[in-house]
Amino acid sequence: MRSNAKDRALRERAAQVIPGGMYGHQSTILMPEGFPQFFTQAEGTRISDADGNTYIDFMCAFGPNLLGYQHPEIMTAIQRQQTQIDTSTGPSPLIVDLAEAMVDMISHADWAMFCKNGSDATTMALMISRAHRDKRKVLVATNAYHGSLPWSTPRPGGVLAEDRAHLIYFDYNDPQALTDAVKQAGNDLAGIFATPFRHDTFTDQTLPDAEYAHTARRLADEHDALLVVDDVRAGFRMARDCSWETIGVRPDLSAWGKVLGNGQPISALLGNNRAREAASRIFVTGSYWFSAVPMAAALETVRIIRETDYLDHIQKIGALFRNGLVEQAKGFGFDLRHTGPETLPMVLFDDDPDFRLGYAFCAAALKRGVYLSPYHNMFINAAMTEADIAETLEATGAAFEEIKQNRDSIQPSQLLMAMAEQKRPTTMRQ
């Protein structure tokens, strides 16, 4: 029987000293009852909670775990660098090594800047786009997530309409909607933001249409604006290059994060020479942006990405997971939508507008040692094996059987429904 006594006690303590008990995307407020909030160990593709329960982890820290928790070669690089220098009065030479490695790997890049979070990188892209020709309007897809700062956060608390006064929204994958948004910007168009694929929460994932992507590139060129691909979430899980290279479109700027240090805190903004002068005119910095240990981890991560078959492996593992899950669902009489890239799977049930089936399914899988999400895309990491997928499918098979037997008594998640159906005014949209 799975215990959660220590997790409950930690939640009670946290409620006294942390607003809301926990905050941000790693809060379990939207997760099914019984999902652990606190974890004490991670290795490979498994995580252990405060009570010692271990799970095959399909969230990968919401993306940063690309090659496996505690990857031995990356840990060796981290430990070696810790004995030399980390955060100091100036950066170590590793910042030059890492910039050269990224420029060498990413086709559109001529330069690199490093920071800590995806939000840092996308906001730098926003600033550079505006500095490029001293224009203001920036186009973003409706409900696309580009970080948690006021211009992009999905929740309106503490955000002013003025924070988003110069954002114009369009429908993802719709060339005409994008064209109309450019017309709305007029002579004040600074940049166009795009995600590698549509990866909104609570809904199916949609791969980019080539016409849409090429339209974005053409419109940016025609209006001397910058095209930005936000690769923070999908970077290196779709390609060893910028994700839009898969459809033949090169941006001016690309934002990177999550996987770059395989869990170490480092993100990056890469750009071409067209954007170099504007990048030199903005002022951005952070006390820990130049730390050497995360850069050592990133250099080793990039080396492994460059030299191994990790991408082929996670694509194969992702396909095994997708095919097995869809086949199981049919066998138990459920219609399952498994969308997006195989390496970033999104799993939703048909005829489940209140998420009761997805919610119950993930709760049932958790009891059997598999950590899934009912509303967010998941992630495949290179530490996953075929044996892990077999173990996962054994757990999900039992979970399908459980929800089939209890289907009439399953209750919806009211909070999850409220989040999925939340309507925001245009000026406050994500």
TrEMBL record:
Origin, by domain of life? Bacteria
Molecular function via GO? pyridoxal phosphate binding; transaminase activity
SUPFAM superfamilies in the cross-refs:
PLP-dependent transferases (SSF53383)
Gene3D superfamilies, sorted: Aspartate Aminotransferase, domain 1, Type I PLP-dependent aspartate aminotransferase-like (Major domain)
List, alphabetically, the InterPro entries matched.
Answer: Aminotrans_3, Aminotrans_3_PPA_site, PyrdxlP-dep_Trfase, PyrdxlP-dep_Trfase_major, PyrdxlP-dep_Trfase_small
* Record's signal peptide: none
* Keywords of the record: Aminotransferase, Pyridoxal phosphate, Transferase
Residues folding into a coiled coil are none
- List the PANTHER family: GLUTAMATE-1-SEMIALDEHYDE 2,1-AMINOMUTASE, GLUTAMATE-1-SEMIALDEHYDE 2,1-AMINOMUTASE 1, CHLOROPLASTIC-RELATED
* Record family assignment: Belongs to the class-III pyridoxal-phosphate-dependent aminotransferase family.
Protein name per Swiss-Prot or TrEMBL:
Aminotransferase class III-fold pyridoxal phosphate-dependent enzyme
Q: Which organism is it from?
A: Pukyongiella litopenaei
